[in-house]
Amino acid sequence: xxxxxxxxxxxxxxxxxxxxxxxxxxxxxxxxxxxxxxxxxxxxxxxxxxxxxxxxxxxxxxxxxxxxxxxxxxxxxxxxxxxxxxxxxxxxxxxxxxxxxxxxxxxxxxxxxxxxxxxxxxxxxxxxxxxxxxxxxxxxxxxxxxxxxx
Length: 150
Hints:
Shape: globular
Distance between the termini: 57 Å
Number of strands: 0
Helix content: 55-70%
Protein backbone atom coordinates (compact mmCIF):
# COMPACT_ATOMS: atom_id res chain seq x y z
CA UNK A 1 0.00 0.00 0.00
CA UNK A 2 2.94 2.34 0.61
CA UNK A 3 3.94 2.02 -3.06
CA UNK A 4 0.37 2.67 -4.18
CA UNK A 5 -0.10 5.65 -1.85
CA UNK A 6 3.34 7.14 -2.47
CA UNK A 7 3.70 6.65 -6.20
CA UNK A 8 0.64 5.48 -8.14
CA UNK A 9 -1.99 7.76 -6.60
CA UNK A 10 0.05 11.00 -6.98
CA UNK A 11 0.98 10.00 -10.54
CA UNK A 12 -2.70 9.43 -11.42
CA UNK A 13 -3.73 12.75 -9.88
CA UNK A 14 -1.14 14.60 -11.96
CA UNK A 15 -2.13 12.69 -15.11
CA UNK A 16 -5.82 13.55 -14.64
CA UNK A 17 -4.91 17.24 -14.45
CA UNK A 18 -3.37 17.26 -17.98
CA UNK A 19 -6.02 18.41 -20.46
CA UNK A 20 -4.37 17.52 -23.77
CA UNK A 21 -4.76 13.74 -24.24
CA UNK A 22 -1.51 13.29 -26.21
CA UNK A 23 0.46 15.22 -23.58
CA UNK A 24 -1.30 13.12 -20.91
CA UNK A 25 -0.42 9.89 -22.72
CA UNK A 26 3.21 10.96 -23.00
CA UNK A 27 3.28 11.91 -19.31
CA UNK A 28 1.62 8.64 -18.31
CA UNK A 29 4.01 6.44 -20.27
CA UNK A 30 7.16 8.33 -19.31
CA UNK A 31 6.31 8.77 -15.64
CA UNK A 32 4.93 5.26 -15.18
CA UNK A 33 8.06 3.69 -16.64
CA UNK A 34 10.71 6.08 -15.31
CA UNK A 35 9.39 6.89 -11.85
CA UNK A 36 7.32 3.85 -10.96
CA UNK A 37 8.09 0.67 -12.93
CA UNK A 38 11.88 1.13 -12.94
CA UNK A 39 11.98 2.20 -9.29
CA UNK A 40 9.75 -0.24 -7.40
CA UNK A 41 10.63 -3.92 -7.97
CA UNK A 42 7.79 -4.92 -5.63
CA UNK A 43 5.32 -3.84 -8.31
CA UNK A 44 5.86 -7.22 -9.97
CA UNK A 45 3.88 -8.71 -7.09
CA UNK A 46 1.45 -5.83 -6.67
CA UNK A 47 0.52 -5.71 -10.35
CA UNK A 48 0.54 -9.31 -11.44
CA UNK A 49 0.05 -11.43 -8.35
CA UNK A 50 -2.56 -9.28 -6.61
CA UNK A 51 -5.14 -9.84 -9.34
CA UNK A 52 -6.17 -13.21 -7.98
CA UNK A 53 -5.56 -12.55 -4.28
CA UNK A 54 -8.36 -11.73 -1.85
CA UNK A 55 -8.46 -9.33 1.06
CA UNK A 56 -9.02 -5.61 1.61
CA UNK A 57 -5.50 -4.41 0.66
CA UNK A 58 -5.64 -6.32 -2.62
CA UNK A 59 -9.10 -4.94 -3.44
CA UNK A 60 -7.71 -1.44 -2.90
CA UNK A 61 -4.73 -2.21 -5.11
CA UNK A 62 -7.02 -3.54 -7.86
CA UNK A 63 -9.17 -0.41 -7.56
CA UNK A 64 -6.15 1.80 -8.22
CA UNK A 65 -4.96 -0.36 -11.13
CA UNK A 66 -8.46 -0.23 -12.61
CA UNK A 67 -8.42 3.56 -12.27
CA UNK A 68 -5.08 3.56 -14.10
CA UNK A 69 -6.43 1.34 -16.87
CA UNK A 70 -9.56 3.49 -17.26
CA UNK A 71 -7.48 6.67 -17.56
CA UNK A 72 -5.34 5.02 -20.26
CA UNK A 73 -8.46 3.87 -22.16
CA UNK A 74 -10.17 7.27 -21.83
CA UNK A 75 -7.01 9.06 -22.97
CA UNK A 76 -6.74 6.83 -26.04
CA UNK A 77 -10.44 7.40 -26.81
CA UNK A 78 -9.96 11.19 -26.55
CA UNK A 79 -7.04 11.04 -28.98
CA UNK A 80 -9.16 8.94 -31.32
CA UNK A 81 -12.07 11.40 -31.06
CA UNK A 82 -9.71 14.21 -32.12
CA UNK A 83 -9.02 12.28 -35.32
CA UNK A 84 -5.40 11.71 -34.36
CA UNK A 85 -5.53 7.93 -34.60
CA UNK A 86 -7.37 5.39 -36.68
CA UNK A 87 -10.93 4.43 -35.84
CA UNK A 88 -10.10 0.72 -36.01
CA UNK A 89 -8.40 0.64 -32.60
CA UNK A 90 -10.56 -0.29 -29.63
CA UNK A 91 -9.34 1.98 -26.78
CA UNK A 92 -10.08 -0.51 -23.99
CA UNK A 93 -8.09 -3.26 -25.67
CA UNK A 94 -5.28 -0.88 -26.60
CA UNK A 95 -5.04 0.24 -22.97
CA UNK A 96 -4.77 -3.37 -21.80
CA UNK A 97 -2.08 -4.20 -24.36
CA UNK A 98 -0.07 -1.08 -23.56
CA UNK A 99 -0.30 -1.51 -19.80
CA UNK A 100 0.67 -5.15 -20.19
CA UNK A 101 3.72 -4.15 -22.20
CA UNK A 102 4.76 -1.45 -19.75
CA UNK A 103 4.20 -3.45 -16.58
CA UNK A 104 6.01 -6.50 -17.95
CA UNK A 105 9.16 -4.42 -17.65
CA UNK A 106 9.27 -5.46 -13.99
CA UNK A 107 10.17 -8.98 -15.13
CA UNK A 108 13.20 -8.13 -17.25
CA UNK A 109 14.47 -4.78 -15.97
CA UNK A 110 17.75 -4.96 -14.05
CA UNK A 111 17.01 -2.75 -11.04
CA UNK A 112 20.73 -2.57 -10.24
CA UNK A 113 21.50 -0.84 -13.57
CA UNK A 114 19.75 2.50 -13.26
CA UNK A 115 21.70 4.00 -16.17
CA UNK A 116 19.38 2.50 -18.76
CA UNK A 117 16.15 3.99 -17.34
CA UNK A 118 16.09 7.03 -19.65
CA UNK A 119 16.67 4.90 -22.76
CA UNK A 120 13.96 2.45 -21.67
CA UNK A 121 11.58 5.35 -21.02
CA UNK A 122 12.25 6.86 -24.45
CA UNK A 123 11.71 3.50 -26.14
CA UNK A 124 8.48 2.85 -24.21
CA UNK A 125 7.06 6.20 -25.31
CA UNK A 126 8.07 5.60 -28.92
CA UNK A 127 6.57 2.10 -28.94
CA UNK A 128 3.28 3.28 -27.41
CA UNK A 129 2.87 6.15 -29.86
CA UNK A 130 3.83 3.96 -32.80
CA UNK A 131 1.50 1.17 -31.68
CA UNK A 132 -1.40 3.62 -31.70
CA UNK A 133 -0.41 4.94 -35.11
CA UNK A 134 0.58 8.31 -33.70
CA UNK A 135 3.51 10.19 -35.08
CA UNK A 136 4.69 12.72 -32.54
CA UNK A 137 6.05 14.98 -35.20
CA UNK A 138 4.04 14.71 -38.37
CA UNK A 139 1.59 12.65 -40.39
CA UNK A 140 0.00 9.66 -38.76
CA UNK A 141 0.96 6.27 -40.13
CA UNK A 142 -2.69 5.27 -40.67
CA UNK A 143 -3.25 8.51 -42.64
CA UNK A 144 -0.17 7.84 -44.76
CA UNK A 145 -1.57 4.47 -45.78
CA UNK A 146 -5.04 5.77 -46.58
CA UNK A 147 -4.04 8.99 -48.34
CA UNK A 148 -2.62 8.61 -51.82
CA UNK A 149 0.64 10.46 -52.41
CA UNK A 150 0.76 11.95 -55.90
